[in-house]
Design brief:
single chain, mainly alpha, Nitrile Hydratase, Chain A, two-stranded parallel ribbon, binds fe (iii) ion
Length: 207
Amino acid sequence: MHDHHEDEHEQRAPGEDMALRVKALESLLVEKGYVDPAALDALIETYETRVGPRNGAKVVAKAWTEPDFLDWLRRDATAAIASLGFAGRQGEHMVAIENTAETHNLVVCTLCSCYPWPVLGLPPVWYKSPPYRSRAVRDPRGVLAEFGVELPASVAIRVWDSTAEIRYLVIPMRPAGTEGWPAERLERLVTRDSMIGAGLPLRPEAF
Ligand code: FE
């Protein structure tokens, strides 16, 4: 499924105008009988409240604790993730990318806002903003610094541009000091931003 809708590529008017245009479009589609408003509400409710970054956190914690699962993620992330029940729209072709001591990964969609909904829910506003989309590529280290992520100069930053077909999930490095932790406890350290590459996992001391 191709999800780079043409209208998303135009220069966007800020929030309110966009909301009005979406509302007008929805009204028209309902009026013409193309969509069922109840189905639309169910879809939005699903991604707003039931699907969220906690799904991704489960994937990451399992990868941290089960080498076989990590191996499966490397070979076929879509299937490995679907085995946990996280599949569907915007998650048809998942690729897991692992942060290491040498390389930090950052995900962007320079064209619009492609994002792995089944594991992370709906994208944050900043992810869709033109400044993030352009600067993540030109100055990833500067963008990361603004997110409070200061990486040593020796760590290379690799930027992954999502396409309509491929959605990336960053597997952050497991924090030191979490040896022996069960997956359920590790999940709590995994933030949404850490799975986009715009953040790091939380420090274990607080948990
Ligand atoms: Fe996109």
